[in-house]
Amino acid sequence: MRATHVLAAVFASAAATLAVTEPARDPDLFWHLATGSWMLDHGRLLDRDVFSFTRVGTPYSAGQWLGQVALELAFRAGGWVGIELLRAALVGVATLFLSRAALRIQPHPGWSAVPIVGAILLSRLAWGDRPQLFTLALFPVFLDLLLRARRGEGARPLYALPALALLWANLHGAYILGLALLVVFVIEAQLVRHPMRRYLAITLVASALASSFNPSGLIALTWARSYAASAGQRVAEERPTDVLSPAGALYALLLLVALAAALLLGRSGLSAKVGPPLLWSGVIVPFALLGLAIQRQLPYAGDVLAPFVAAAVPAALGRTRSSSPRLPRPLALAAIGALAVLPVAVGALAAPREPDLAGYPTGALAELRARRGNLLHEYDWGGYLIRAAPDHPTFIDGRLFPFVPDVLADWSKAVAAQPGYAEVLERHDIHLVLLRPQRPLAAALGERGWPVVAQEPGRWVLLVRP
User: Fold this and answer.
1) Helices marked H in 193-328 — which ranges?
2) Are the beta carbons of 32 and 386 closer than 8 angstroms?
3) Residue-wise pLDDT tens digits, 66-96
4) Is 189 in the same domain as 236?
5) Counted domains in the chain
6) Cβ–Cβ < 8 Å for 34, 386
7) What secondary structure does DSSP assign to 17-79, as a single string?
């Protein structure tokens, strides 16, 4: 067995071990768990709003239903540790196949380690406990299998892709990334008349058909496009990448190194020492632009950059390509087994038993349970309140799409105490307001005689209509 298999397992085990030690804190996790719980309890898909009072009954995409059910099953099986173990497993799978792809192009551990670690650091942007973890895992699986087929291992690596596309389309809405990757490989293979071109084209058609078997069918693609178009101003991760941020600077560095190496090598050098230039251009350019336009996509841009940087940099410096030594199979399998067990053992011993709720108004729950009436609250507390205070349907929450544009506009006007905010409160019959105390609305309502019934100074304040 090649030593690169063990090395890939080392990277995967390290990333999974790091992932399992972090507490659950993603604000969207709570409404995903509530959705998964509702579907398990009712035995059917949840395709319309049942959690808010502003959009109750409004249809929305159930395309990530399987991811939500998986999260809730993990929670029912192991509590918060179950969530953390699922996260670790998916991060481990993502890192394993990312490492396999990079080591397939550059087997030298010294040259491959730096871009692999860089891609792992970028992937941490997507370690939040929500269905996007499944996209984080499946994208590098697609990349690795496609590289195997394109580099001469025949059609066999492609056989799994349609089944994975079917699974992905029901786990998370970003399955379009896998199809886009397939499109690039198909176009490049057709242009260069590669022997695998027919198999790749058949795989693309089969994967596209398989991915249409989700609750929303092909309409799921329009849900994703509409969400991305409307969410950018409210959801930070949908904004363009800030190259001065730590993640943005790391990504910019990888991108610049890749560009410099490509310029030094030229087309003939790339073809001889790294691989088909047209393929690498077709893969890197669109995903690099996507990563710059939407910071949520940085992990996938990092995935496609890592193998190229690992191979192109030493080639540009004139280093010869090394080969991977072989290890005795029993020894290699024993090492891989031990590496697989390590994150599980660390999780059992050291994974946090409770989520990190420091950013949520946990102290307001008792008072909320004692009161009735429509509640206006912080946007990023909505998902938590769905699960922690189910007797108070939300005004707005992290699902966002059902609430744009009008409910989001009303919420923004109200919390900023802009002209007309009083009409917003009346129209939605607001009796309770739970906000950060620095919000203009909190001060405005205090001046209008709304009493404070509970508060935690500097963190939250609960006001009630007089």
Assistant:
1) 197-211, 219-231, 246-273, 277-293, 298-316
2) no
3) 999 999 999 999 999 999 999 999 999 999 9
4) yes
5) 2
6) yes
7) HHHHTSPP--TTHHHHHHHHHHHHHHTS---B--SBSSSTT-B---TTHHHHHHHHHHHHHHH
